[in-house]
Amino acid sequence: MNALDYFNARLEATISPMDYLRLTQIDPDKYFLLDVRNGPLHVRSLKIKDANVIPEQELQARLSEIPKDKEIIVYCWDVWCNTAAKVAKFLLERGYMVKELTGGIAAWKEMNFPVSDSTQEVNMSDNCGC
């Protein structure tokens, strides 16, 4: 793979927090933001505002909650976390349109973009699967 192919593939598979925020302001119904972080509730207490929370270890059982007619944007902790990449691969293999949010929630918070308290979610599980 040459550099051009690499960067084309990277841009096809990822979206920056700035681009996601801008694109959802233009067409908010096009996207389904998915928080796939594993871990106990106290470390997942914040989520990106309006994100849907389905931890990676619950994904297979809750697949019906993810719409096939929207572009799925997955995120996890940070650039060092590959959980979102694993989930993206899983969903792509099942026919979903998927991109990974670059930098995860860490990049989102660094930009001071909107977050909300995820502990208010009814479906939140404290079983981290770790």
From TrEMBL:
Residues 27-117 form the Rhodanese domain. It comes from the Bacteria. Signal peptide: none annotated. This is Rhodanese-like domain-containing protein. InterPro entries: GlpE_sulfurtransferase (IPR050229), Rhodanese-like_dom (IPR001763), Rhodanese-like_dom_sf (IPR036873).
